[in-house]
Amino acid sequence: MKKLSFLAVVIFLFGCTEVPPVIDFSEPVLLATDTTYITRDLPQNVKKNVLIEDISGVRCNNCPKAADIAHDIQDKYPNRIAVLTLHSNRYGPFTAPYPESKDTFNTVEATEIVSNLIGEPSGLPAGAIDRKVFAGKTSKINQQYETWESQVVEQLALTPKADLELELIKQQGREIIANVKATVLAEDPSATYLSVFIVESHIKSKQKMPDNTYDKDYLHNSILRKAVTNYAGVKLADNVEVGRVFEKGFVFTIPEKYDINYCSIVVLINKNEQATTEVVQSIEKSIE
After folding, report:
1. In terms of DSSP bridges, do strands 81-86 and 50-55 run parallel, antiparallel, or are they unpaired?
2. Domain extents for the chain?
3. Is CATH 2.60.40.10 the right assignment for the domain spanning 25-286?
4. What is the pTM of this model?
5. What is the pLDDT along the chain (288 residues), one digit of tens a residue?
């Protein structure tokens, strides 16, 4: 793992205190469905799913190792793991696109998630599991990607606090309706949010490799392309009781530059207050 050349600047700017989220809901979200109600018929045999956020860069030579681990974990626990690969604008030495690259993976959403919901790492690669500060740790950031699986396993064993269902409907052209149903399984007195993201995989683009060579045909996977909601989510409620159901249908268009055949939707139930930004439940589903 390399240290960022601007580590001293990062420490000066951020110190040991995480920056609380700055939430901007100025962009409206188009909803096909928006309702909430109480049910006594709770879903059964619900399992806790886990989010891996891989903070990466095309000029980071060890980032392919971290990506392999994240996706090996995803393959090992089918339908239980969602992966978001985040390319922040803040790490130019590691994330600046190559002159010959047709695309850049850097997004405002990824930058805001890292800065406001996870925290700035001192080097790349880095990651976070469910945006959680684990026992014995002081940060959500885990730069020892070899240990990601142990944290994932710990999260998988938890009793889920919510259930998520996701239905994707393709309309004419590239318009998508994502019907989300969130059911609360444990009372929670704190504010709860719902986040929806467009993710793309199988993107062929240049990448620096562990042996310091460059692979111009490297396949990038699980790249966070765009947030359908605000990057930190839309608020469901300030507090939730057991059996509370939220149904929301998000209408959006997959941009032409993304290959819809390799796009998926990631949905999170998460916190985004100063005290915690932990992910309560997650789900990922391919559009095709």
Report:
1. parallel
2. 25-286
3. yes
4. 0.90
5. 444 443 333 333 333 334 444 444 345 677 888 999 999 999 999 999 999 999 999 999 999 999 999 999 999 999 999 999 999 999 999 999 999 998 899 999 999 999 999 999 999 999 999 999 999 999 999 999 999 999 999 999 999 999 999 999 999 899 999 999 999 999 999 999 999 999 999 999 999 999 999 999 999 999 999 999 999 999 999 999 999 999 999 999 999 999 999 999 999 999 998 789 999 999 999 997
